[in-house]
Design a protein that fits this description.
By secondary structure, the chain is α/β, with parallel strands linked by helices. It has three helices and eight strands, in the order H-H-E-H-E-E-E-E-E-E-E.
């Protein structure tokens, strides 16, 4: 009788322990993710940096410049404006807050600032497999022999410098383009292998 009670108590303890582990394993972690990933923001802002770097290096040196962003309509506009202001200062210009204070007015416009995604696959894509009589569909996983996914940030800005007093054009600046890239490669069971041209601190 005593041995039977001992076995019963042991079973209760073991069962309680297993139940506790089961309940502990049922917990979930809730993640809050923004609409845009950090990678997207870094690719887009890096493309903007490289487009702004296309400004002529000597046109603004030593001049009082007003940056006119009336026609600038793009993603991350606040960052783009600040990046343009930093670029002008780096070229030796003095930024002013009003057009009537400027020797030169730089009109800025945007043609593109966005992200492209391209995916290439050599192998079998993920396929749905209906289960007969079950009314359900099993999704077979992708089987890549070779696969690459590339994200590319693209920027296009147009700058028009005009005389602050007469309003006459001072120079014809070609459109300034910027590009950034991040890729992920798979080969058979190896991958992903990352390749990126983002600045070292942004990778």
């Amino acid at each position: 009788m005593g041995m039977g009670r001992g076995i019963c108590r042991g079973g209760i303890v073991l069962g309680g322990g297993l139940l506790g582990l089961l309940l502990a394993g049922c917990g979930t972690v809730r993640e809050t993710l923004p609409a845009r990933s950090a990678m997207e923001q870094l690719l887009v802002s890096t493309a903007a940096d490289r487009a702004v770097a296309g400004l002529p290096p000597t046109l603004f040196q030593g001049k009082a410049v007003f940056l006119d962003t009336t026609n600038l309509d793009c993603t991350d506009k606040a960052y783009v404006i600040q990046r343009m202001r930093v670029g002008l200062r780096q070229q030796g210009s003095r930024l002013v807050d009003a057009k009537d204070q400027a020797e030169l007015i730089l009109e800025a416009g945007s043609g593109a600032l966005s992200l492209n995604k391209r995916e290439m696959l050599l192998g079998l894509p993920a396929l749905p497999l209906p289960i007969p009589y079950a009314g359900e569909t099993l999704r077979l996983p992708e089987l890549p022999l070779w696969k690459i996914i590339t994200y590319r940030g693209r920027a296009k800005f147009l700058f028009s410098p005009v005389d602050g007093k007469t309003g006459q054009p001072l120079a014809d600046i070609p459109p300034c383009f910027g590009d950034s890239r991040e890729s992920y490669w798979w080969c058979l069971i190896v991958g992903p292998i990352k390749s990126s041209d983002l600045p070292e601190g942004a990778k």
